[in-house]
Design a protein that fits this description.
mainly alpha, Growth Hormone, Chain: A, transmembrane, 22 helices, 80% helix
Amino acid sequence: MSKARVPWKAVVGGSVGNLVEWYDWFVYSSFAVYFAASFFPEGDDTAKLLNTAAIFAVGFFMRPLGGWLLGRYADRRGRKAALTLTVTLMSASALLIAVAPTYDAVGYFGALVLVVARLLQGLSVGGEYAASATYLTEATPQGRRGFASSFQYVSMTAGQLVGLGLQIILQNTLSKEALNSYGWRIPFVVGALAAAVVFYLRRSLLETEAYGEEEREAGHGGRGTIRELLAHRREALLVIALTMGGTVAYYTYTTYLTKYLSNTAGLEKETATLVSFFALLIFMCLQPAAGALSDRIGRRPLLIAFGIGSMLGTVPLMTALGQVGGFAGALTLSLAGLVIVTGYTSINAVVKAELFPTHVRALGVALPYAIANALFGGTAEYVALWFKDSGIESGFFWYVAGCAAVSLVVYLTMRETRDVALSRAERAAESTSPAPV
């Protein structure tokens, strides 16, 4: 396969599952205000929301387990098999929420169904990232991996935008009473149907050449095991450290941004939502350009640019955002932050996959990433709100900058991964290529 050719079928099949994952993840949190009362007895509305938030958190803490189980599965059974399994779990979790019985009908059994659905969703999200990152990296030829793998964050962002768009449509077409009684089920039905379509697409994917070579060899009976991962513990620690700053910054400028603009800057919720929508839309379009740039100049320059930009730019940017007075200013500053974050998001998947050998690549990406994401990404909003509640909101800005500084040290000292050969065919092509004059 030519280096200049992008395997679009593999790119779409490998990345589109992230769209469904993040759509489901978004609609649960955004529609909780409508379905919370359906699963708990009459009483304090805040208590109901806290209960649904606790169930949401269960899914987040399942991600490391999903990373381990499905990362192991991808290394032992294949990338295609793992991609198919993750999308099956996605569909099942969305369908369970869509048909979950209410408290009035079956008591707390409905809440139990929610818990099971979130467990499945957490497992799925934990495995989808690694299976997708590994497949996109291995299925794409050298010289185009950065571009192809950037579509992971294109699809993740698209999932949030689709969920946000559907929320806006439903809020403007259904009454609040209709949303509370049955309207909240609609997005989960849509999620289940979308996952079924992705399942159909993924069944026709081809297994990657790198994994096929590994499977034909008898020397790696320990494929995808913790023992094999520990043999590459330096790379695993690298994944945790390089993810730390990126995931905190990503959640700060995406999921937390709307709340920050509303609660601190004082913008109307509708205005804050529109800012997030258009900022994410432009951010999504930036990913392939940055990924392609990394194929030309390497991964480390983009990571270093993100590290420096986030370390030095977070405090002044977030301070200015907290004082912004309107849509244009908020959008401009939000985009400045997301442009910086693009240096991480566009290539973080391919960098992690390029660090590990084939027999432990999926697990090596999945487990350390899930741990870092649970510790830093998943807690970013809670840390931000803790600082705000303590009366030192600016402390959170310094926290984000500090996490970026730790990751910057890693970016400055790690090896460049762009030219790593992932299969024997690629190594053979390198050995037969004419030496540069």
